[in-house]
Amino acid sequence: MKSWRDLILSEFEPGAGELILVADPDRLLVEEEILRTLRERNYEVVIYDDPVHFRFFYESKYKPLQKQDRSLGLVVIVQTSNLYCLPYDLWQTGRRVSFSLADIFPQLSYRVLVELDRADFDLLYKACQGHCHSRLGDNATKDFVLNHVFGIFPERIREPHELLHVLIRHHYQRRRLPKILEERFIQVLQSKGGFTEWPLEQIVSDQEAFFAFLQERWKIFLDRLVHGNSFAAEPSATYDLRFDGPLLLPFDHPEVKPYMDNLFLEGYLTPVPHPQANRLAGQWVSVGLKKDPWERFFGLAAAAEKSIPKDHARYHEWLEFARRWAELTVLYFELPLAPGEHLEEKAKQADEMYGNLRRQVDKAFLIWMQQRYSALYNQPAVPPAMVHHIPRYLAYLRDKKKFEKLALIVVDGLAMDQWLVVKEVLADRWPQFRFHESAVFAWVPTLTSVSRQAIFAGEPPLFFASYLDSTGKECSLWLRFWADQGLRESEIGYLNVAGDESPEKEVGEIPERRSFVLGLVVQKVDKIMHGVELGTAGMHNQVRQWAQMSYLGKLLEFLVEEGFEVFLTSDHGNLEAQGIGRPAEGATVDYRGYRARIYSDKGLRKRTKEQFPEALEWESIGLPDNFLPLLAAGRSAFCPKGEKVVCHGGISVEEVIVPFVYVERVRGKTL
């Protein structure tokens, strides 16, 4: 077979209208490409994890659709090894199948396989076809996966530049190395007696720690370059280093140097000032020196254009690109506005480049969303792909890592580029925090009542359909989710605060219990957005001012002092849009927004669509059947023609992909 998916998909005949019950303990069927293919073959897919939710879906959504289309099948997935938990009527009529990693990769250790991401299976399957001809034990499987999936050959690493090259390449690609493989990687390195002074446990597993380690050593490398053979490395205390390890790293080695440009351009590393910057100008290290922002902008724009994900990209690629796009957006709106013919020409070139690139990004993202977004909400919650996965991920961490107190801060309306603005202030004023950054997809339409409530419910909007006209049930949804995880009501907290007062005053007395979960909405950014008059640049300016007022930093400090593990996210982002006119529809619309209009009748939606032919009739993916969005196209808004507004509700990278951050408190040298 050409792909590991073929073994699974051979069980699903297109248009057969079958009810198929699947035991899927390794969660193979929720892989993006398999879900997409099943839908192409006219199967609805549902995970059976809640009897009430399943019966609601089966009776109110699937059965009416199946009456209209007899070729529509249903795949019911149980993520255990048996199907006995399913209702009797399904058990009697459905065809039963099961899938396991052991069936697909019989030569490899199951104990290792279960730790891998589904995205790794393509490379692994191909490697098995050509290189694996006998059964492998645990360690041999670990080595095989490290070699053929991650391109890491620990036994070949003998010199510092080889280790540095491998780690930079790995962390730059933002690929997750399972714990079991991290341990094997470190074990093999240490078994040879080398790299004993390197902080391997930190820099192999933790991307933020690795780049912080490089950042500390960059200043030392520049000093060495300036002083040449006369340079005598000072003790680590002189440079205020937090990480143990060698002082000098071989950044100039031919295997390492090609990566340095992108690390500085894309914000993984921060350019630094240097007293001898004039002597370093014109050399390759100038990319890591504070200098003309125009050069960095044009370099990052060129890199971003090359990395726009394709139509068939996995969702991780868009999450990664969103970080790069946010970095470019912040940089673009910070370009100097000084007069002068030379700068005017640069500004014109930058405007043209950014505008063209933005159009490419918008087009590619919309195509991808139309083809692939529907597969996201059934993805495993570890790690989270969408905002409603976040509570399930936190519950997983609470159980696995024995976190006793968890706090989830939802900064309403905080876009990825605005998070970068906030983080810059926080990193400068609260160096005791390290931010482990990732991203998740919001719900479409990107409205607070849809996407923020999904966060607190821990489930798709379909299952809180009666609450979609407001956010008034967030607290009860949050309480219900955590009560289902076994917490008492007294151990669950929910607060909705403005974000203006001191955190101690707004948050108040948090119950001093050993076990407590807090959900906290901070409204400030959304309020800034609805009042801003200077577009994206105005948003960045006002969000930066808010961060400098120290509310968020003090809130993080307060929660950490109270013993909480703190996570931060957003329900949706925002973008600057231009008015194309306001629909004339009276009381026929259920919700009127700049970027989204919601209808309960397809005929009414179609009538408005005729007024605005480019508007998008969005499918009710994970939404109630009578919740029908009409989304403004591109970067347009349903408001008077020519009017510029900052808003949300539609489909763009800025609105849909939002930050998800774990805030870790740094302690001493171990960070």
Share of β-strand residues = 5-15%
Shape: globular
Uncertain stretches of 5 or more adjacent residues: none
Tally of individual domains: 5
How are the strands of the largest sheet arranged?
6-17-9-5-8-7
Q: Which structural class is indicated by helix and strand composition?
A: alpha/beta
Taking the alpha carbons of the first and last residues, their distance comes to 47 Å
Counted by DSSP, the helix tally is 27
Rg, Å, rounded: 26 Å
Helix content: 40-55%
Biggest sheet features: 6 strands, mixed
Would you give the CATH topology of the largest domain?
Answer: Alkaline Phosphatase, subunit A
Name given to the CATH homologous superfamily of the largest domain:
Alkaline Phosphatase, subunit A
What is the tally of beta strands? 17
CATH top level class name of the largest domain: Alpha Beta
Looking at the overall shape, the CATH architecture of the largest domain is 3-Layer(aba) Sandwich
Rounded average pLDDT: 92
List the helices and strands and how they pair.
Elements: H1 4-9, E1 19-23, H2 32-40, E2 43-47, H3 51-68, E3 73-78, H4 88-93, E4 95-98, H5 101-104, H6 110-113, H7 121-131, H8 138-148, H9 160-172, H10 179-191, H11 200-203, H12 207-227, H13 257-265, H14 277-280, H15 293-306, H16 315-332, H17 341-372, H18 390-400, E5 405-411, H19 416-429, E6 433-441, H20 448-457, H21 474-484, E7 492-497, H22 503-507, E8 516-522, H23 524-531, H24 535-548, H25 551-561, E9 565-569, E10 575-579, E11 591-592, E12 596-599, H26 602-611, E13 616-617, E14 628-631, E15 636-637, E16 644-647, H27 653-656, E17 657-665
Parallel strand pairs: 1-3, 1-4, 2-3, 5-8, 5-9, 7-8, 10-15
Antiparallel strand pairs: 6-17, 9-17, 10-16, 11-12, 12-14, 13-14
Helix pairs in contact: 8-10, 15-16, 15-17, 16-17, 16-19, 19-24, 20-21, 23-24
